[in-house]
Write a structure and sequence with these properties.
Number of strands: 8
Distance between the termini: 87 Å
Shape: elongated
Number of helices: 28
Strand order of the largest sheet: 1-3-2-4-5
Largest sheet: 5 strands, parallel
Radius of gyration: 31 Å
Structural class: mainly alpha
């Protein structure tokens, strides 16, 4: 006889009551989602159906790698394992329940080995859920990590899941010692223990209560069945009515599918000529996708744990920004849906101003745009765009900008560079190097786009000199723009002055196209990211390489001769705009290990987990008056390695670390050098360089 079980045994009206109620619960859930879609629709249009084929493919890949395999979650072992157990366990139980419905209403196929295998799978899924819930409870109520925002809803949800799953095991156990379906003379536990043992959880429960009287066993079975069903349906209704974080099961996949198709380092442009307002000053100024982000966020706090501003005592928490925006959307949603319009930033009628009350200005200006928050977010919430959009409103609509930042914006506009007070020209660093100007000879292999810092700041000029020596040693035919070069506009864009950025971008694109420039090399990751990822928004398509990429290319081609460093204790700092924004981690390390065979002394936070220097997002030009200096936090990590030199690949990282080393009074034991400087010091070019 094949193994089987009779669904709804001893529950004569179970199907007639349960499935209509289940359908009603599903209808309520769909209604709740539709109401949320209405809220999202308050946002401005945003075409997230572009590149549909690629979106579908990426969604499948992310679904497998980050969803089923939990790649992003497993970057933190304990919460990763916890979430995987809950996710996989719930998936198994959901599929098993769906198969039971098909078996009951469509065609009977769950028998024999299929029944035994499904019994085992469901029990494994149930155990995974229980272990996951216990781990979640321990993490939230025993370990209590700072990033978790624990509220009553957390306890309710965990309790509901635990009780629903545990009662499922008890129902299975009592069924084994009570149910006598047609074809059997005794319950499964007694007549076919070899079947029952496949459901190991239920079998264990059955063995505990087998000694009860038959009537007691039956009463327990029926009572628990209805309690379990009522609790499961109640949980669904509760989730729908509260739209709590469990709804991320639906919303998060939507967010993943509609994530931006722009390069990671590119901000969304404003159509300056057609925009009625600049940036975001009201909740409905966000796009519909940005509002979807708010519901996709599960308040897990991973972003907060990675944020250099938060970790150095600044008022910014990426988690809190998203949650505060969500609360504001819910607070204003009903009124906005009714009116489909709203007053200005504040209408004097008790409505909180988005900027200044819901989100503080200091929160917005604390962001370094390092992308650590977005890199760790398991559901691809886009924090940076929201912060920069609110900065745009502050700068372009409200004329509110930190004093030192305003001075730099004026300097870029008036003088074409961000080095206020400099007395250098853009060609002073070339003294003695015989570097050509593009205006003199445009028949070159590449254009070296020097950037403001390397051309006009005393310390960073040494990087440009080193780069010039390397290019000449390799026999590269190159030229610079010299006096024609102007700021790429990146500081203006990150600080919120999109208008000034676009002026700079268009000016540079026209200049480069005028010379028919094909390939560009930069020593600044910010210039690199802007020209490579953001200039295409305005028709500027160029082949752009960061200097570490190009130098690594020269080494592979054996175009430079090198000597090795002796007894070097060296570590490397990943620039945010080279690393997280552009996924360039290998080339700088390849260069350094080519001159230091003993290898690097890596810091505890490197590559995608690297810690910001504090200069990004325009912070280089702002006073760091709140909390600890981010650069000093990073230098402390450098000092932990015992390194004598920290290598950088960004002029702003370099300058931030110079200042931090002085603040730590560590000039005698620690120095900071660009990768190009280190390589140039080991060049073999007719003797020592």
């Amino acid at each position: 006889m094949e193994a089987f079980r009779e669904i709804f045994w001893g529950i004569p009206y179970g199907a007639f009551i349960l499935y209509p109620l289940g359908t009603a619960a599903l209808a309520v859930f769909i209604y709740a989602i539709c109401q949320r879609v209405r809220l999202w629709s308050l946002g401005k249009p945003d075409n997230r159906w572009d590149n549909l084929g690629k979106r579908i493919w990426d969604f499948v890949v992310v679904g497998v790698v980050d969803g089923f395999l939990h790649r992003r979650f497993f970057r933190e072992p304990y919460p990763g394992i916890m979430h995987f157990l809950l996710f996989a366990g719930a998936g198994v139980l959901l599929v098993g329940t769906a198969l039971d419905v098909v078996d009951h209403y469509v065609f009977h196929f769950i028998h024999g080995n299929i029944y035994l295998g499904l019994s085992l799978a469901l029990d494994v899924g149930g155990v995974m859920m229980l272990v996951g819930v216990i781990m979640a409870a321990v993490r939230r109520y025993v370990q209590k990590p700072e990033r978790l925002n624990t509220v009553l809803d957390n306890a309710v949800v965990l309790s509901l899941i635990f009780v629903v799953v545990i009662t499922g095991f008890f129902i299975e156990g009592f069924r084994m010692v009570v149910a006598v379906p047609e074809g059997l003379t005794q319950p499964e536990f007694y007549s076919h223990p070899e079947w029952a043992q496949w459901s190991f959880g239920g079998y264990f429960i059955a063995s505990l209560f087998a000694g009860l009287s038959e009537s007691a066993r039956f009463s327990w079975y029926v009572g628990l069945w209805w309690f379990h069903a009522a609790l499961a349906l109640g949980a669904i209704f509760y989730v729908c009515l509260s739209f709590n974080r469990l709804t991320h099961i639906i919303v998060s996949p939507l967010n993943v599918f509609f994530r931006t198709s722009r390069p990671k380092g590119a901000l969304a442009p404003i159509n300056i000529e057609e925009a009625e307002t600049f940036g975001v000053g009201k909740i409905e100024d966000f796009t519909w996708k940005q509002l979807l982000d708010l519901d996709a966020c599960t308040d897990c706090g991973r972003c907060q744990d990675r944020c250099p501003a938060y970790l150095s005592g600044k008022p910014l928490s990426p988690r809190k920004v998203i949650q505060d925006l969500k609360a504001h959307l819910l607070d204003r949603g009903s009124e906005l849906l009714q009116a489909k319009t709203v007053s200005a930033t504040t209408d004097g009628g008790g409505v909180k101003a988005l900027i200044g009350e819901v989100i503080l200005e200091d929160e917005l200006w604390s962001c370094t745009t390092c992308r650590a928050c977005q890199e760790i977010c398991p559901v691809f919430v886009e924090h940076i765009d929201k912060i920069v959009d609110m900065r745009r409103n502050l700068v372009l609509e409200q004329a509110k900008v930190p004093e030192t930042a305003e001075a730099i914006l004026r300097c870029i506009e008036a003088r074409g560079h961000s080095c206020r007070g400099t007395t250098f020209t853009r060609t002073d660093w070339t003294s003695g190097l015989e570097v050509k100007l593009l205006s003199e000879d445009s028949d070159v292999e590449l254009v070296y786009y020097v950037g403001c810092a390397a051309a006009l700041e005393d310390r960073s000029m040494k990087v440009a000199v080193a780069m010039g020596k390397i290019l000449k040693a390799a026999g590269v035919k190159f030229a610079i723009l010299g006096p024609e070069e102007t700021c790429c506009g990146e500081p203006a864009r990150r600080m919120g002055n999109e208008y000034l950025f676009q002026m700079q971008a268009i000016k540079n694109i026209e200049l480069l196209k005028g010379y028919n420039v094909k390939r560009i090399v930069t020593t600044c990751p910010h210039c690199f990211n802007t020209i490579k990822n953001e200039y295409p928004q305005f028709g500027g398509e160029f082949d752009v390489s960061h200097h570490t990429q190009f130098i690594a290319e020269l080494l592979r081609q054996d175009r430079v001769g090198l000597t090795s460093m002796e007894n070097g204790r060296l570590t490397y700092h990943d620039s945010c705009y080279l690393g997280r924004h552009n996924d360039i981690y290998g080339p700088p390390r390849q260069i350094l290990t080519s001159i230091l065979p003993t290898g690097l002394l890596e810091m505890r936070r490197v590559r995608r987990n690297g810690f910001c220097c504090g200069a990004g997002g325009g912070r280089y030009w702002m006073e760091e008056r709140i909390g600890k200096r981010i650069s000093e936090v990073r230098i402390e990590e450098v000092m932990e390695t015992g390194a004598a030199t920290v290598a950088t690949a960004c002029p702003y990282c370099l300058q931030m670390f110079e200042d931090a080393i002085k603040a730590k009074e560590a000039e005698e034991s620690l120095k900071v050098l660009d990768v190009a400087e280190l390589l140039a010091s080991q060049l073999i070019v007719s003797g020592e360089v």
